[in-house]
Design goal:
This protein has 171 residues and is of the alpha+beta class. It has helices at 37-42, 48-58, 105-115, 117-131, 134-146, 155-169; strands at 12-16, 19-23, 30-33, 77-83, 86-93, 98-101. The chain is 42% helix and 19% strand.
Length: 171
Amino acid sequence: MKCPVCRTQRLEAVQYEGVSVRLCDSCDGHLVRNKRIPAIKRKQERSDKQLIEEVNANGDGDAKKKLICPGCLRQMSCRKTSFGPLSFNIEVCDKCDHTWFDAGELARLQLFYQASDQGIELAQFRQRLEQMPDEERDEFEQRVAKMKFNRVLAKEDLIWLCYFGSRFHRR
C-alpha cells in the first residue's frame, strides 16, 4: 500500500501503542483499521508530555486535498474530530474501514480521549487498581481470568464492567 498523502512512499507495518498500524516514513501519517482505534485511545504507554510533544512537533497536519484510500483506491471521507473548541480532520474509508491520521493526529486523539469523561474514569480505574491491596487485586484478576471473552466485547471492557460490578456489589 502507498501513502495517500505522498502517493509514492510505501506504508510500513509498525506498532503504535502496542497496536498494529501502517506508517509513512516520509510524512509520519498513520493508516489504522477502524476496529483498532478504541484500543489506541485507551492505551497510555506514552506520557501526556510525549503526546503533547508529538502534537506540537507536527503542527496542523490536516490534509489539504481529498485522499484516496490505499486499500480500495476510493476517495476517503473527511470527518471532523473535536473536543470542546479543539478539532482536527481525519480521513475515513467507509468501504474498507481504514482511517488516515496525519502526523500527530493519533497523539491528539489520545489527548482528546484522556480529557473526556470516559478517559478520566478509565484513569481513575487504573489508579484504583494500582492502589488495591494485593489480595483484593489477585481475587479481581482471578475473576476476570475465569470470564470468557469474545470478539464483540473486549477484555478491557469486561475488566471495566467487573470493576463497576464489584464496586456496586460491596455497597
